[in-house]
Write a structure and sequence with these properties.
By secondary structure, the protein is α/β, with parallel strands linked by helices. It is built from nine helices and seven strands. It is about 45% helix and about 15% strand. Helix 1 packs across helix 9. The protein starts with a strand and ends with a strand.
Length: about 250
Amino acid sequence: MAVMIVTGGSRGIGAATVLAAAEAGYAVCVNYKSNADAARQLVETIKGRGGKAFAYQGDVSVPEDVAGMFRQTAETLGAPTALINNAGILEHHCRFEEMSLERLQRVFNTNVIGSMLCAQEAAKVMSTKHGGAGGVIINISSVAAKLGAPNEYVDYAASKGAIDSLTIGLAKEMAESGIRVNAVRPGVIYTDIHASGGEPDRVDRVKESVPMLRGGTAAEVAQAVVWLVSDQASYCTGTTIDVSGGR
């Protein structure tokens, strides 16, 4: 059974990816930072459907937590062959000049450094040059990386721009090691991350700016992720799929 790690897997796009992956036959490590109840419930749902999963509490910006996550996954489910770098944070919307240094550090520590640390650990485990069997890394970016999120989340958009560059560089560097690296850029998606920005109904406010005139669902994003992980996408690396309704 193929083994997947999903960071930030207890809610939103992460949780939808966990469920879609389990349905596709993956054993899944559900990483979470603080929402233990949601992670446990997700694991129980998967086990109730005959799948394999476990929850791992850890902060992706802490190297010891990341190493422990990969170690525990290997011991519990087997060597991981897929990493979904989904963990990310969004802070209260404001203009760029109002953003504190502490806020910028929080956003980049989780969204960028966290993804980098997890990708480094995945490379050590999956790389054929290190005795691994190869694998797939999927980075969750955002259409904000292209649009910039002015007057709202320039810091978040910039962090996702870094994820886009990371995806390209890693894909080229790791191709000979049997690791494919791709990304998915969600648009405005109905998840509770918008409440973190102080506007839980943001999707409904901006959906008229989307060519398809609606917000997307976490499940729609998850399907793109699972396809990119699958053998159907075996010749795709350095690729980013927009799941944004044309935005």
